[in-house]
Fold these 4 entries.
Entry 1:
Amino acid sequence: MGAQDRARLMMGARLLSALLPVTCGLLGVLISNLPVTLFGGLVPPPLLGFIPIYFWCLVRPDLMTPAVAFAIGILQDVMSGGPPGIWTLSFVVAYAVIQRQRDAFAGLAGVAAVLGFATAALIVCATAYFTTAVYYWHMSPLGPIVGELAITVLFYIPGAFVIGSLHRQLVGPLRSDF
Amino acid sequence: MSNNSWKIARRSNAQLPLVIVLALAVVLVLLGKAQSGLFDRARMRITDWMAPTLESVHAPIQAFNRWVASADELFVVYRENLELKDENARLKQWRNVAVVMQDRVRHYQQMLHAVPDPDINSVLARVIGRASRPFLQTMILDAGESRAVKPGEAVVDSRGMIGRIYLAGDHTSWVILLTDLNSRIPVTIASADGKTATLQAIMTGDNTAMPLLDTLQQVVTLHAGDQVVSSGDGGLLPPGLAIGTVVGDGDTARVALLADPASSEDVEVLGFRKPAEVLPATTQNQLPAVAAGLPPAAPPQPAPAPAAAPAKPGTPLPQMPRPAGNVSAQAQVPGPVPGGNE
């Protein structure tokens, strides 16, 4: 393999690793916003798009920039059908908090790591709830948003496992060469 | 020193995009408030694009939901069967009453030459998707603008009204449910015993299973079991669509909906357009005065050359020239006299 081929391969790998977080985020939004309800609509959809934001904001913030969080939030707004901008603002606010407390969040392990994600998801849901309350000037019932928070935290455990595997397989080794 | 300044510079570089993105997000919310249909076109494009997948995915998921729902129904099926038989017998009696009443109403309408109800075009559609999110409760239908479905039209199933069309794409449409936070429907409340007069109210969704009733009058008495139907005010929805019954909830009144959006499979989209009111032609023979048996008014006389000074307030108006011919006693009834209330 010549030097030119190797450089081309490295460039492709760099692009792939840069696109992986945003692709995972957008894919998570698409999956969680499929207009399909299980259990008669009793189980709200999880915020799958937020799991990659949280994960890569801690692990590789250079791959999960505020602009990427913004783009994932916009797709969440488009797909969820709610008032425009609510989820975008919530994701970006949570991103800001995670970025400021990055050392505290990144140092957690095991159950504490799940609780750390639950805190970040709580910021997302609380921001969305209060922004919507101001938007409509009406406090909507807490039940659905609490259910969404709970199901999102529940999905974080397998979600973090999948994303962690992808990161180790694709992003980690590739970026380590640079 | 130099190391410290590098850190500050790096920090400011890293924070700047976040501040900009945060500001953009706030602007997006404000923009969305000003123009709520900001993402509508994108939403409909994506939904149209996903429609074939949704249709194929919908059947197995529906079967799964039915299976889950039927698991706990097995335990109450015997008792429920007895209750249904009893209810069926009572409904048959009510059906007979309704048929007799319908005939009587038709007869009265013929006698009174009542204006017939406007025609309603309906489009049968299948539910291909549902979404129950914290801030939006919706369902997706497999009919769009290609089948003349338009935003604002009522969506009903065999039991009653479910919601209204919110967005209409080419082949799909989104329905905003009556329970959704954005739903507001003008309704009429008819008392169950038929003894008290009907009331007008606004039914507002608040993301709970039973929407709120906001009566326009200050003091009203609502009874549990009162019937709630669409009033047709505003001309968007046909009047008389069955919606639900009143239930008390502390100080507030709510509506227990007849339809169950979670289980509806086939629905009807009612294309209701109130026909524009046709004004009578203004020919002389059809003037109200002629219709009342009075002679037609004389054409206006040209005004005298010098313009009269404007009348002071309280001054009696000058007498108008009377038309020739006999004036009936009814026509001589004096009008309101200026200053007559003194």
Entry 2:
Amino acid sequence: MDMTVAKKKLGLKERYAVMTRGLDWTPSYQKMEDIYPYITYEGIKIHDWDKWEDPFRLTMDAYWKYQAEKERKLYSVLDAFTQNNGHLNVTDARYLNTVKLFLSGISPLEYVAHRGFAHAGRQFPGPGPRVACLMQSLDEIRHAQTQVHAVSNYNKYYNGMHDFHHAHDRVWFLSVPKSFFDDAITAGPFEFMVSIGFSFEYVLTNLLFVPFVSGAAYNGDMAAMTFGFSAQSDEARHMTLGLEVIKFILEQDPDNVPIVQRWIDKWTWRGYRVLTLVAMMMDYMLPKRTMSWKESWEIYFEENGGALFKDLARYGIKMPQCAEQIALEKDHLSHQAWSTFYNYAAAANFHTWMPDEDEMAWLSAKYPNSFDKLYRPRYEFWREQAAKGNRFYNKTLPMLCQTCQIPMIFTEPGDPTKICYREVDYKGDKYHFCSDHCKAIFEHEPEKYVQAWMPVHQIYQGNCFPEGTDPTVEGFDPLAAVLKYYHLEHGRDNLDFDVSEDKKNFAEWRGQATKNI
Amino acid sequence: MSTVFLALQTNEETRPIIEAILQDNPSAVVDEQPAMVKINADGRLVVRRQTIEDITGRDYDLQELQVNMITMSGNLDQTDDEITLFWKA
């Protein structure tokens, strides 16, 4: 693209000042506290909103111009993808399960982020952050829409994607990403900015998008690669907004520092727990791997996050304490997650499988301290059982952590042979946690987390069956009823990849694409 | 000094930009990944409009980079002439 560069009458800095502050006014007949009612209760003190400036100095006119260009590029690639039967060019049909996981787990979060930034932007009295939040809010709805459009091309051929939003609001493991974002948007505007803008976008987003998008590129998925890059081109701006907001809040008043530190500690851990899904995607679900979860964590968190927290040390901000536990978990996280999804393949909207010999060798090489000793024997046993016709499907519902809502599958820090359990008694009820960090988050705001919609509790209470279901009839099959409630078809959308329609169809269609029949 | 980086899509538009960055930043190192180029530099990285214009022979608005950016790290400052990424510590 050769864009015409018009000679501007004003420089970038002047234009930014005119298009943000220049458009703002001081209200005369309404009180500031009535217009911005949520701005004080979190305890954050702001003295001068004009000190906040977007370092990209992007104004709405330029925003529309470049976003339009991104959309043109994206949709021409999507057309080419469809016209070229692009769905048959992915490495193998197992890859599609990554797309299913993304569409039902992540895309709905983009929409919630759209609402969250619209809300936060409305609440900030400063025109600088308000304009930046408006842009991010528009970006996020664009991401939701382009992801749905791109993946709809796969939905024409493969199973499990047909009702992703319905699934997002109901399926047991999807409550993990859903409750994470619900937690953020129900916080105050400053905590929302620290949770999503800083902790998620700045500290953790590279771990989600970069491996996912380069994974898509590596696995021949032109559709996901192109929406991924298109979304990612907005992320650099989101990261900048997240970092600037943190610096701005910290510079405004020293009393803000401990509040912000608590939020950073909480949201780094919350975000990391959600990334469990990404860890398993990288190590198990991409037929052609880009890098291991452990390597990705070392580059993007330990190295890059280390540089960030060193830079923020001048404000008195420290690396979140949970980083120590995360470092201990990096040899185990993806394996513990994949084992769980292998177990629960009957109740999920995507397929799982056991890694083949080459993949086991890759895992041994990437995880020399843990894989052969702890996880390979387990997989070999399951593989043997499957070969004998006893593919294991766990039908007992797991205990969930009250904060992150992940089943209690994680092991004690430093002892990968012992499951970690923590509990708290609160107002006569017992609550369970996967870790000290999730427990501490609950203890700080118990009234928020006791309200969590816990999928397993809801199933046991009979709230996850289709209307009119009678669980007392003889031979009642609770799993079958739950799948109906999820809008998932047993034997089609769930179970092992080996017995799936996806595997059979992909092989047949790819065969047709290369032969004259 | 900590590393700053800028990651761009691998395409025809970014080729001269990467060339310009390498000219202007002696510490810059290119890390080519699937469909993506990550440029790492020691503590500070500058993208200069003038260098890009010299290479491409056309006028360039640094905001065009918005279309091809993937991710970055460091504090940022953008003017009409330069985009700078830097750590203060």
Entry 3:
Amino acid sequence: MSDTTEVSRRAVEGGFADPVFDAQAVFASLLEAMSRPGTIVDFGARCAPPAPLSPAQGAILCALADADTPVSIEGADETLAAWLGFQTSARLAEPDKARFAVTPRFDGTALETFALGTLAYPDRSATLLVEVLSLDSGEPLRLAGPGISGHTVVRIAGLGEAFVAARRANRALDPCGLDLFLTAGTQALCLPRSTIVTEGSRCTLP
Amino acid sequence: MYVAVKGGEAAIANAHRLLADRRRGDRAVPALTLVQIAGQLALAVDRVMAEGSLYDPELAAMAVRQSRGDLIEAIFLIRAYRTTLPRFAASRPIDTGAMLIERRISATYKDLPGGLLLGPTFDYTHRLIEPEMAEDGAVPAPASRQPADDGPAPRVTDILGDEALIEGDGADDGGEPADLTRSPLAFPASRDLRLQALARGDEGFLLGLGYSTQRGYGRTHPFVGEIRIGEVEVEVDLPEFGFAVTIGRVRVTECQMVSQFTGSKDVPPKFTRGYGLVFGQLERKAMAMSLVDRALRADEFDEERRAPAQDEEFVLAHSDNVQATGFVEHLKLPHYVDFQAELGLLRTMRGDANEDRNQASKIGESEPSALDRGDGSVGE
Amino acid sequence: MHHPDDTTSSSTLDNGRRRAVSAFAQADAAFLREAWAKLGGSREILPLRGPENGLVMVRGRAGGGGAPFNLGEASVTRASVRLDGAMVGHAMVLGRDGDRATFAAAFDALWQVEAEREGVESRVVAVIETALAEVDRERRSETEATRVDFFTMMRGED
């Protein structure tokens, strides 16, 4: 069997079993997670994408990406490109052209790599998908801003040291900036650009 | 200002019912079929596809039937339909050089390689109503002749281009073309964006603008280099195949308008060009488009922009007949509150004016008016 | 042009499949259904994706050969199927006919089964290509009859 055949065989597997209802369910969960930053949502085993995508990242891309949203995935190979193309009609693109970008970390370089939007069209920015170790067992972070009553605390493991500073820099670009989907396995947590993230040590934990 | 008002539901429902009745007309007369519309009113269907910006003859025929032959209404229906569908991909640019030609003419060369083929044209008819059109008489089969086997007919601009007497097609920088269905129009517009807008623009509007350039409003001294009509293959690169596949064919009309030459100290003079390309057999539209395309390139050739056809904001912002009809026809919507407000304002102004007049006549008797005082203070 | 060089990057096999897929896309549904009854045998066509209606943005080039621009969209239908849990086939066809897309995808899958390829080539692909060529030839002949034959008239002294 040729490589091409293997690539195309993999492409048709691991997508939504029921494209309409799965996409609607994932969209509804993301809406909830985006409008209440810090909320953890779980997409379950809806999607089994090729590496390096996690199930949650696969589900998000299957629900949101299409031929009009170029996607950038660090470490994507031919198999992943074919899978993404078949499942979503999206094409892989250079990071600065991407509307969705899968990247292993969020730090200062992200702000130089991806589209931040313009003052006239702040929506023309990238949404980043970053896989972390866990969404509920790391050092505490304090979240505040739209969609959060007062503040909330999340414990995310595997964000990297530059995360909070990068969020601060991102926040300073308002109304431009990057939106963030943190994923771990089948779970996701959203940090829109409007959410203020500070280190947990700076506040009194409830 | 718009205010929600309730009422008129029964009237609307009955109006729809009446519309359906009038559309169907005399039940003793057979209803039009889509095949009849697509086959016998093909050029109306082509116009709906071109300006509806969606190639689908059957659907366009449905729209023509539903709209009772109101083509702008049909175009509106097609535009609304296309917004409900996902876009899977963009095609490779079609190759008009490889067209299966059904008509090809040139006003600049009679001995064009590949020859002149008149095709199914109105051009040499006498424009007299034919009595046969009142009946369903037999129509003879078309004449047939063994085609000369001389390969594909090159585009006329490629022939002139060989001698460097005409500007080339321009470079392809490999970037994604602009798409006005995805981002709002912004000015200055690039040529790709202008061509997209013109391809879906209103035929009547573009015809008028094209005509205006001939009458001196942005003169470009045009010749029809070539018009060709026929079918081209649509090829799409699909990731599931890993190569480009042909998904079918579409009929298009292409017009190469050769226009006045330009040159400078450094560049020898050469002809310039305008380009027209539309879905379907729409020669007039393709010609008008090529005239306007050329007029809109004024800046490229250091021509002074003075005429409406050279003003891209004017042309592009008003060429879309769905936008135009929406804004013109919205005036039918209830403006009761706006109008009451204006009426109120007018009454107040009149009241004030009357009062001022009364005041003025009173004041005039006792002291000079503000203007007479000469201190620039008017009123209070 | 910015497309991968077809002749070098794709194998002969790909070229054969590409020709076949392009033929399936241009056949009518009734022909494909009939041909499937003869060649598909008892194979079950399992839908993987679609058939679904959508759009393809058709592009042209400024001046015919210059930079691409968006001419307008076209209705398309695409389908992906699996034959009896084995071969996967795809199709995208102009228009809104789901059956046409499904059978075209099924034939793409069947074409990839080596034992079936020759039968599909001779009884489907070749038949479609011949029919298309015949229609084209007729269209060309009718157009040819409208060719202008110029006669040069004598002018001047000689």
Entry 4:
Amino acid sequence: MIINGIKIENTFAEAFPMKVARLIITADSKYWLKQAANSITGFATSVIACGCEAGIEKEIKSSKTPDGRSGIAVLLFAMNSEGLAKQVLRRVGQCILTAPTTACFSGIETNEKINLGDAIRYFGDGFQISKKINDKKIWRIPVMEGEFVIEDKTSIASGIGGGNILIIGDSNQQVLKSAEAAVKEMRKVDNIVLPFPGGIVRSGSKVGSKYKNLIASTNDAYCPTLRGITKTKLSKSNESVLEIVIDGTNEKDIEKAMKQGINIICKKYNKGIKTISAGNYGGKLGPYHFHLRKIMK
Amino acid sequence: MSYLVLKLKKKLKYRINLGVLTPNNIANKKISIIKSLKILYGKEKKEISNFFSISGNLKKGILFKGNLNKCDFIGHQMIDGKIIVKGDVGDYLGNKMKGGKIIIYGSSSNYTGASLSNGEILVTKNTGDFLGSSIQGEKLGMSGGTIIVKGNAGNRVGYKMRSGIIFIKKNAKDFIGCQMIAGTIIIKGKIGSNLGLLMKRGTIILEKQKLSASHLSYNGKNNYIFLKVIQSYLEKLNDEFKDIFPNTYIKKYLGDINCKGMGEILILK
């Protein structure tokens, strides 16, 4: 399949099941909202070393948030419920509780709940106050600035991690420009995040390494500087490969994001781009297979 | 007709205990059986049909018509469904209620919503003493649910209250939140004396008041954003709560300081 001169490889992105929590953060100003959201989703690019993958999903209008202030929804992904609970608690405790004027609420409703305010409330040292209205419970934790308001529990759901596309081209600058445009477009889709810096990964990995202690190492098949000595997947003219990793709450939205990203590259940012591919491990890593050509039909 | 309509036939001389007539108690019962249910009239047990004409079905709930100010325990231990009363009611309305909704198009007497644990009670006129309180001899008052009174309330609103919301649109008398343990009382009108006496925890929200009681300590002004959160939850329950907290930067008093209480009284204006 070729779209506007770009080859869409006959391959698939291989993704795996994760657990996801959606938090709604609110604050008095957009500045502090961004600070808190960036902080809680910081150092959360890959479960390989960060414990979780996280990103900003979208901004939420004040009319749609529990406290009537502007909000941001963030998604946090981990491999299991216990790992996610630990990460959510640490990150909310260190990044949201600490940020001036913020409050934190659950952004999804499922039957599987983890403690949020119910654990962080102990910071209040006995001065914390709970408020319960029907099935909703919030905690008011006194802090030096006033009060930190947080929902008692947050729901977690099944999610998907590791959707991806690879952008292969003949120029570093052009590949980066295309990837940036794709990220901008993909971020318009709800229920997904692109957890890497600016949504883009330059160091895509393969499973395993020649070094025993490493579970992942550089994906040498896509390293242009190793073309002469490895079993490369690049042509002679290819100078750069960038990857966009997508985590989402469902397959449909990951597919939608992949499609929108590839579309914008093929339609508007195709200069110097030769191939769109995807990373997989032969189907051994995860049950979710996003076939590029099927998506782009 | 989708309500089971019970119309009071005559003026009552003695008090009636209507605790048996809840939607969950009479579900799937034929009208003939409902008519023959025994209720306490003074000290005697008599059939319901002696006092009420009964028609319709229970699809939407129970609808009482007439002046029921001598009828007590309406909605007693109700679990779900709906009761509507077009007229006044007696004591213990929604006593130990666990769910469902009661609407009174009139006034209720004492102990309305006593030991309520869930569900909603709406009284369009006034209510008596001990609204949302504990019943005599019990340690805990209302422990959940919502009570809305569009008129005035009597003494000891939320006595020993443990959780839930009480909203009074007009005035309330003395000893509001007395021995309160938790929960929220919102009063839009004037209040009597001894507010929050022996209060341990919980929140009383008042519209515009000057407080000078010795058992309350002034805590200054701050931004209480939780009010907006409560408002958004309450707005979903009832339109009465729309924009009840326009301002969150408000005064706070703590008390009862004589019993190391952490109860709070918030003054909206």
